Amino acid sequence: MKKLITTPIYYVNDIAHLGHAYTTLAADVLTRFFREQGEQVFFLTGTDEHGAKIAESAKKEGKDPKEFCDEKSELFKKTWENLNIKYDHFVRTTDEKHEKAVKKFLENLKDSIYEKEYEGLYCTGCEKFLTEKELVDGLCPDHKKEPEKIKEKNYFFKLKDYLNKVEKLIESGKLKIEPDFARKETLALLKQDLDDFSISRQKVKWGIEFPFDKNQTIYVWFEALLNYVSSIGYGTDEFNEWWDDAEIVHLLAKDILKFHTIYWPAILLAAKQKTPDKEFIHGFFTVDGQKMSKTIGNVIDPNDIVNEFGVDGARYLLLSQFPFGQDGDFKKEKFIEKYNSDLANGLGNLVARVLKLATDKKLEPEKNILDRTKQTRDNYLEYFKDFKLFEVLNEIWKLIAFCNEYIDKNKPWESENREQIISNLLYAISEIAFLIEPFLPETSEKIKKQLENNKSIILFKRMLSIT
Length: 467
Ligand SMILES: [Zn+2]
Fold this sequence. Notes:
CATH superfamily of the largest domain: HUPs
Helix content: 40-55%
Strand content: 15-25%
Bound molecules: zinc ion
Number of strands: 17
Largest sheet: 7 strands, parallel
């Protein structure tokens, strides 16, 4: 099996925050898991770099837009490197390869494009037109700014022609939208009167030139979606190798659901391309019960978590907070406590205790241990295939707790059955080392080495809690 796993591309106007890190880390964990299962996986992420907002921000910093984008996209790459996230391709929408593919794609979309005079309320913060209904007291609810009234000639995509087909794709399960809330929300949106949408801008200069009209640029949202095909070589022979043969899986947060679950499949249908196989949507989160915001001062920089808890500590803390796919709360206040209890005491202590008592003599593990680890592995596979990363971690940590209790109960240090007990535990630890690999790749390696050398070195230093 082959899989193409993608994250959205992130707007370079922002720096990598917890939300970006969460989606990208999940994609990395899934990639590592499916590879371990013998699948060929292509993991794609990147940055979205066009639009009026970028040009404005660059100008504020006294830079030209490209220079600005070069710097900002580096910051994203650096953050992914710090989190040990290993993508196969990092697309930048200012890449020549992307630009060429986008133009080519538009030519194949020609029959579904028309010209129209358009007037609407545009928020540069969102880079999109807002409807009267979406405004709160006349302002964009996200940017607290009055949108500009813009009248211009635009090119439109005939979305309405494809809505029925998109609905059928979803209802037949050919396009899986998960979790269920996202599927329901998409189907509800399809029942509303969705209109054709514009895919070009007359006044935005920082963008890719519209192929049929040199006075226009391609709308940044539309162009960004095309990264999924440009990155794997749309317009060249290599393209089909991944787009047609692989299972296409998009991961995203629910704020961009409509673009991905409705617009994107419609665009692909119009261009006579395969539609995605699965879109997995995750929720919003709060930090210590509050919405993340600069004014409250609770914005979490993922790089800070790495500095404080190490790369595997950060990876664990990010994904062990609440089920993947739901809204949830990051309990930053409890990070130290969770790190100590699950990593330093739970996993780290288990490995240290067992290796201290281990000798070169190893016996076959007993049946009860084989059964117990097999149970974990079965559940692990089941949950992983459904992208239930939180549940997978719970399963592994239940096995770790089982092992720690097993030591306490059997007291190998004073037992005449010591060699058997320790052999059982060594077997369970080797299983755990294998199971944690997608989440904690460095720790997994360290444990495997320690098992080989029969020597324990501290995996996670206990931290002093301030409270
Ligand atoms: Zn806005």
